[in-house]
Design brief:
This protein is α/β, with parallel strands linked by helices. The protein is built from 26 helices and 20 strands. β17 (551-555), α21 (560-572) and β18 form a beta-alpha-beta unit. α17 (409-422) packs parallel to α18 (436-449).
Length: 663
């Protein structure tokens, strides 16, 4: 291996920053950045279309460090490139409170970071969504507007995670040719040699999934450059298996797992920097190296200018639509379209499952929101996610707006994060609510990153019936309501489902989960409303009968009709009760105190009913309030029998009220 002096200076400078950052923080992962410095230098110095002066330029190449533990690699690159805000002082404060150089890369926290990575496998899976978005938008707006690559650096750990198989298979099936993954094939994990736990031939695995594969010396400038050039002309996604040495340049620790997750130590760090020809002082960059890197940061400025010139030739309508969508602005007529739908429902009420009501709402959204991209993890007829007008995306054509993700729930959730982060599209995807367990790591990252993703989760309770406890969620509502920045809606009828979809599609700062029934529900909302009642999370659906209410019944989803029936039964016994629909418990609890107080009311008795565990409801009914719901797992039977078996009935709700009223 003989690299040019220019390349070696640039790569070693990158290594030096990784050594110094981890050493100063006394925490971090120096080995991977040191081993990957040659790969990163070739990519960023010769190929990456990224203008350091405009890190948010829409047609930039996307670079995703799936091996997020190697974060000093991307921080060093962004600083050397000259990206504003990623200063040397920030590198010196690596992993410290208030710096923008967190332990793992975080989107929105550091300029130039495209997605939050660190949980292994998430980066490569999210990258599939970026590549899908690129191809879809290129189909819509043309290659003048959208023509870029998605590059990924993935570790052994990324490829061992199960989500990687879902992502790799989907990308190969869809022939995402502008997705290029560099595998850091260093044969090392935290426990030691990779061979103690894994013997998969990753190259053959990717080939079997429809990828082009290339083996390259990850320490050779020429080999890496040739591999990238070949990958850029492929009709398939490409894996470049880069044989590297972890901790390359460290005299005693290179090739050892000791460089993976701990500083080199003062003596080894000094020896490594000396061997690499770097200044001994921490964070010192030679003027020659900085000049070379800053020139690389300006290399794409002409391409940026050419893109702007090309965009100017688009029609005014197409340009305005592109800019609106990339800015994340929702269509001006979105709220009006849903309001019109709800007016029709009030005029002609329907009794349908909320999954079917969701399909009716999607009919509206399809027309009003061209950026909406729907899909399902092989449950399209059950999730009702393919409404009228949605054509399927295929490997041959991305003209459609519906994605068949296959039985890949986790991969779907991660890909939707990537689609949303790319910009220009709003993804929605469905599966059964219980399978949020399969999606959970990607859902959590979406909440952390603030992605505007919509999860359509059907079959929400014991109401799904005969499939039994394996498929009946009981703890999932409480679990997901507890997640910061996650919005959960469990609507009770077609009107609330329309309102939930409107709010979900209008949201740009975080994900939304729509929790929907399999069983039919009677429409409860029969009067028109000028406002979206779900916006506060809860509202009074029905007041007391025959006098001031002595009890308030709180319910969500399918149990609202149970609460309404209990209200009628109580009225027959001379007890006045009101009903509050709570489609989003956590959203309601975030409201100002006066809003909460007006909805909660002054009735002494409070009872909640939900076909799930009680956890979370004490915030409304109090520890002494009544609760009718689940205390364990479900069972297999027709759903009406299950509701009776578990005591989730109007009679049980009324009994909870009467016990407190008469006691």
């Amino acid at each position: 291996m003989t690299n040019s002096a220019t390349h070696q200076l640039m790569a070693n400078t990158l290594r030096g920053l990784a050594i110094d950052g981890v050493e100063q923080a006394k925490s971090g992962h120096p080995g991977a950045p040191m081993g990957l410095a040659d790969v990163a230098t070739v990519l960023w110095a010769k190929h990456l279309k990224f203008d350091a002066a405009a890190p948010h330029w829409h047609d930039r190449d996307r670079f995703i460090l799936s091996a997020g533990h190697a974060s000093m690699l991307i921080y060093g690159l962004l600083h050397l490139y000259g990206v504003e805000g990623v200063t040397l002082d920030q590198l010196k404060r690596f992993r410290q409170l208030g710096s923008n150089t967190a332990g793992h890369p975080e989107v929105g926290h550091t300029p130039g970071v495209e997605t939050t990575t660190g949980p292994l496998g998430q980066g490569i899976a999210t990258a599939v969504g970026f590549a899908m978005a690129e191809r879809k938008l290129a189909q819509e707006f043309g290659r003048k507007a959208v023509d870029h690559f998605t590059y990924v650096i993935a570790s052994d750990g990324d490829l061992m995670e199960g989500i990687s198989q879902e992502a790799v298979a989907l990308a190969g099936h869809l022939k995402l040719r502008k997705l290029i993954v560099f595998w850091d094939d260093n044969g090392i994990s935290i426990d030691g040699a990779l061979s103690i736990s894994d013997s998969v031939d990753q190259v053959k695995r990717f080939q079997a999934c429809g990828w082009q594969t290339i083996r390259a010396d990850g320490q050779s400038e020429a080999a890496i450059d040739a591999a990238i050039r070949k990958a850029q002309t492929s009709g398939k996604p490409t894996l470049i298996a880069c044989k590297t040495v972890i901790g390359w340049g460290a005299p005693k620790k290179a090739g050892s797992h000791k460089t993976h997750g701990e500083p080199l130590g003062a003596e080894e760090a000094a020896a490594a920097k000396a061997a690499l020809g770097l200044p001994a002082a921490p964070f010192e960059i030679t003027p020659e190296a900085l000049k070379l890197w800053r020139a690389a940061g300006k290399r794409s400025a002409p391409a940026h200018a050419a893109w702007k010139a090309g965009m100017a030739t688009l029609s005014a309508r197409k340009l305005a639509e592109f800019n609106r969508r990339m800015a994340g602005e929702r269509p001006a007529n979105l709220a009006k379209a849903f309001a019109k739908q709800r007016k029709g429902l009030i005029a002609a009420p329907v009794t349908v499952a909320t999954r079917k009501a969701s399909e009716l709402a999607l009919d509206v959204a399809f027309e009003a929101m061209p950026e909406l991209l729907s899909g399902s993890a092989d449950l399209t007829p059950s999730n009702n996610t393919k409404a009228k007008g949605f054509e399927s995306i295929t490997p041959q054509s991305f003209k459609g707006r519906y994605v068949h993700y296959g039985i890949r729930e986790h991969g779907m959730a991660a890909a939707m994060n990537g689609i949303a982060l790319h910009g220009g599209l709003v993804p929605a995807g469905g599966t059964f609510f219980v399978f949020t367990d399969y999606c959970r790591p990607a859902i959590r990252l979406g909440a952390l990153m603030g992605t505007g993703v919509v999860y359509v989760m059907t079959h929400d309770s014991i109401g799904l019936g005969e499939d039994g406890p394996t498929h009946q969620p009981v703890e999932h509502l409480a679990s997901l309501r507890a997640m910061p920045n996650m919005r959960v809606f469990r609507p009770c009828d077609a009107v609330e489902t329309s309102e939930a979809w409107e709010l979900a599609l209008s949201r740009t700062d975080g994900p939304t989960i729509l929790v929907l029934t399999r069983q039919n529900l009677a429409q409860q909302r029969l009067a028109d409303s000028r406002t979206n009642k779900l916006a506060a999370g809860a509202y009074e659906l029905a007041g007391g009968i025959g006098g001031p209410p002595v009890a308030t019944l709180f319910a969500s989803g399918s149990e609202v009709e149970i609460a309404m029936a209990a209200r009628a039964q109580l009225a027959e016994k001379g007890v006045s009760a009101r009903v509050v629909s709570v489609p989003s418990l956590e959203l309601f609890l975030q409201q100002p105190e006066d809003v909460k107080a007006s909805v909660m009311g002054k009735a002494r008795i409070k009872v909640a009913v939900e076909a799930a565990v009680r956890f979370g409801w004490d915030a409304i009914v109090g520890p002494d309030g009544g609760f009718v719901g689940m205390s364990g797992f479900g069972a297999s039977a027709p759903y009406k029998e299950l509701y009776k078996h578990f005591g989730i009935t109007p009679e049980a709700v009324a009994a909870e009220v009467l016990k407190r009223h008469n006691g």
